[in-house]
Each structure stands twice: as structure tokens, then as C-alpha cells.
Write a structure and sequence with these properties.
Blueprint (H helix, E strand, L loop, with lengths): L1 E8 L16 E6 L3 E2 H7 L9 E6 L4 E6 L4 E2 L3 E6 L21 E4 L4 H9 L3 E4 L5 H10 L3 E3 L3 H4 L7 E2 L6 H11 L23 E3 L12 H6 L3 E3 L6 E2 L3 H13 L4
Bound molecules: zinc ion.
């Protein structure tokens, strides 16, 4: 039996199990056997995709600080500092971070439909299947190397999850802003191109001549009279045009980008 002491920073305290959170900054655990540091951290409630840097030290006074990866085995009394994303640049500045290189592609779990729709509205490639079960979500995540978005913490702890995020807010607009901040997605940056993607099925919209939508919009004579620019979704065949609905969506985009 040996003791480990962990401190969490960078917003990770929110994941700590109730009761531990009130015990000050340090979580103390006793281990019976050699254990991967990933499992030690997750036993505290913190999913590994939320961890950017793990610094372990020797002795009571924090000697010999060094960064370790999730597979590192804890096998003797250890102190460790666990940092959320992004870890402060001044802490072991040359140590590789654990959460670099997330692809700007997402898969959202069945409870995050509004978040998924908002991300698509901003042009971000986001797979969402409302009825997808846990194995299906992981399958989609692996197939296209996507970031898993879920508030199901045990799901995020699955060892095959490389990139993931647990939205903190209950509210979809704030969740969207959280995702933009967490993955460094900015206007005019990679991946962000509002109104280029189908909100219903995630496909990229294609410009289409008015003559090609006349039949599909036969029941919308005013739309055909007032609009000349149309786009069609190659996935679900929906037709999009800059109608009044788009004004509402434009103000939503402004709010999501922090300009509303
Ligand atoms: Zn579509």
C-alpha cells in the first residue's frame, strides 16, 4: 500500500467526486498495487481527454518535476499535479501536451442535438445520430478521427477516446462557445464557415440553379418570386435560400461567435 496526492487545476475540480472537492486542493488516495496514472486520475472523476499535462514530483517538497503520459505507472508514493486544457505555458514549457492536435471534426452524443446543430450552423463537421448508443458513438469517433462530445463521463473515460470534451453548461449556446474556446476555433479560422453545411444531415451545401429547384419549391411561390440564389443539400436534398429564417440564424451565429 502506498499513498498518492493529486492536485487539479485548470477547471478540473468541477469533475472531482462530491466530498473530495471540499477537502481543499489536494486529493489523497491509497493504492494497493501498481496503477496506470490514467486510472488514478479517472478514479477521482476526471476523464483523461480533459487532461493536458500531468506533472509528477518526488518527495514532500516537489523535487524533480517531470511530465508523464497516461500509461505511466504509479508504483510508489507520488505527488502529482494535473492540469486541464490548455496547461499553463510556463509549466514545464518543453514538455509535450497531452491534448494537442485535435481534429476540427466532432461526433455529439444523443443528448447534445442543439449543440450539434449550432456547430453545423458554424460550418463545423459534426456527426449526430439521436439514437446512437455508446458503441456506435465510439465507432463513428474512430472511423473519422473525431472529437467526442458528451456529458457522459464514463464514456469519455473509455481508453480508445483520444480527443473529447464534456460540455459544462446545460445550455446549448454556451456549450457551443465552450467548444469553440476549447478547440481554438475562431472566425475565419480553420473549419469555421457559417451557413455552408446542412443543419439536418451535416453535408456541405452545393449551389444550385433556380431552374433546378422550381419543382421542389412549387408550393413556395413567394420564395420563388423573391429569391434567386439557392443551395441544395446533396445528403437530404433540402433546399436552402436566404429567407427570413436566415436572419434569425445570423443573429444566432453572432451570439455564438460572441458578437451578439
Ligand atoms: Zn441535408
Amino acid at each position: 500500500m502506498f499513498a498518492v496526492a493529486l492536485t487539479f487545476s485548470g477547471g478540473l475540480a468541477t469533475f472531482l467526486r462530491r466530498g473530495w472537492r471540499e477537502n481543499g486542493d489536494i486529493v489523497r488516495r491509497t493504492l494497493a498495487e501498481k496503477t496506470a496514472v490514467k486510472d488514478v486520475i479517472e478514479a477521482c472523476g476526471v476523464p483523461h481527454p480533459e487532461v493536458d499535462l500531468i506533472v509528477v514530483t518526488d518527495g514532500e517538497h516537489g523535487e524533480n518535476p517531470r511530465a508523464v503520459d497516461f500509461a505511466w505507472a504509479v508504483q510508489a508514493p507520488t505527488r502529482m499535479h494535473v492540469y486541464g486544457v490548455p496547461a499553463p505555458a510556463e509549466v514545464l514549457p518543453h514538455a509535450p501536451r497531452l491534448q494537442g492536435g485535435s481534429p476540427p471534426r466532432f461526433v455529439a452524443d444523443g443528448h447534445l442535438g442543439k449543440l450539434a446543430r449550432n456547430l453545423r450552423l458554424l460550418g463545423l463537421d459534426t456527426v449526430y445520430e439521436r439514437d446512437a448508443d455508446d458503441p456506435r458513438l465510439l465507432e463513428i469517433m474512430v472511423a473519422d478521427d473525431r472529437v467526442l462530445l458528451t456529458r457522459d463521463r464514463p464514456q469519455l473515460m473509455h481508453r480508445i477516446v483520444c480527443h473529447g470534451y464534456c460540455p459544462r453548461s446545460d445550455e446549448s449556446e454556451e456549450q457551443t462557445r465552450e467548444v469553440l474556446r476549447r478547440f481554438g476555433l475562431k472566425e475565419n479560422g480553420a473549419g469555421l464557415a457559417p451557413f455552408c453545411r446542412c443543419l439536418h444531415c451535416n453535408a456541405l451545401l452545393e449551389a444550385v440553379a433556380k431552374s433546378e429547384v422550381l419543382a421542389a419549391l412549387a408550393a413556395e411561390p413567394l420564395t420563388l418570386r423573391y429569391y434567386d440564389e439557392f443551395r441544395r443539400c446533396p445528403g437530404c436534398q433540402r433546399i436552402y435560400w436566404p429567407g427570413t429564417h436566415t436572419q434569425k440564424l445570423a443573429s444566432l451565429v453572432a451570439r455564438l461567435l460572441g458578437k451578439g
